[in-house]
Design a protein that fits this description.
This protein is of the alpha/beta class. The strands form 4 sheets. The protein has a 9-stranded mixed sheet, with helices on both faces. The protein has a two-stranded antiparallel sheet with strand order 2-3. α1 runs parallel beside α9. The chain has 2 domains: 280 residues, 3-Layer(bba) Sandwich (Glucose Oxidase, domain 1); 33 residues, no CATH class. This is Cyclase. Pfam families: Cyclase (PF04199).
Length: 335
Amino acid sequence: MTTDAVNVSLIQRNDPLASITAAAKQYNNWGRWGEGDVLGTLNFIDAGKRVEAAALVTTGEAFSLSQPFDTNGPQKGWRRRTNPVHTMTDTGVDAERGNQGFPHGFGGADDVIAMPLQCSTQWDGLGHIFDRGKAWNGRAAGDVVTSEGDLVTGIETAAAKIVTRGVLLDVGRALGPDGGSADGELPDGFAITPEHLERTIELQGPTSAVRRGDIVVIRTGQYSRVRRDGWGDYAGGSAPGLSFSTAEWLHTSEIAGIATDTWGFEVRPNEFEGAFQPLHQIAIPNLGLFLGEMWDPDALAHACAADGRYDFMLTAAPLPITGAVGSPVNPIAVR
């Protein structure tokens, strides 16, 4: 497969607005779960889906899919996104010296962290992206997100929802230059098409079949590369990622969410002249699809490649931060 296998009828490179308009109309879930819906594609996760996911746990192996949250992270200040700043407010030194004011030798440590909510492994909530002034379910963007936060679809609405079957599609391993190696990496700028996704599923086998209510975790290998070579332009620079032509696949597959090991989910540079993250513009406000970014699937990918089993129970609860449009997350895959 090559990046040339793109639905050219959908991608009009010289007219991005026409492509966005057409995709937004064709792949739209507004009203699907009622006018008052705040969950979007998370509605595909029901009690039966969670029971199905729990049945996948056979060894009890657990994998964190989170990058570290520290000052050595990927952010460079774009749109005021910085790396976490971790500060100790009480330490062992204070305890040793009796500076804490506790009786009978009691001592302790406390700390605080300051960070943008989308500086490392995170979910994009439904209030994060708008399409021509409209938020998820056709609401006016200004009625949804104000200076007080997301008044309708704040990330807290998803606090207890994201427990489901996860599926790893290790596209880097399947289709990268070192295809067949769990260390395979797609080059920056590689646009992952529906054909690439289906070919990966075919190569990985039946446990990779994507079903309604799943969360799909895409490994491109970019995070493996920057962890080895340094961050470079990981935050906002060129990257492998999903092609705009996957909009139909994202819609018809009825997945609950999708996450990648890259900063921005979709291929960068984007496939249109003068566009910025056009697949986000379809996925979040029109499909109601939850997007995860900057996840770390590498250890999980090695385990999956070792035994050929690519599905697992996934828990990925956002912090219930009232009115937030995104949230840090520590996704856990249990096999």
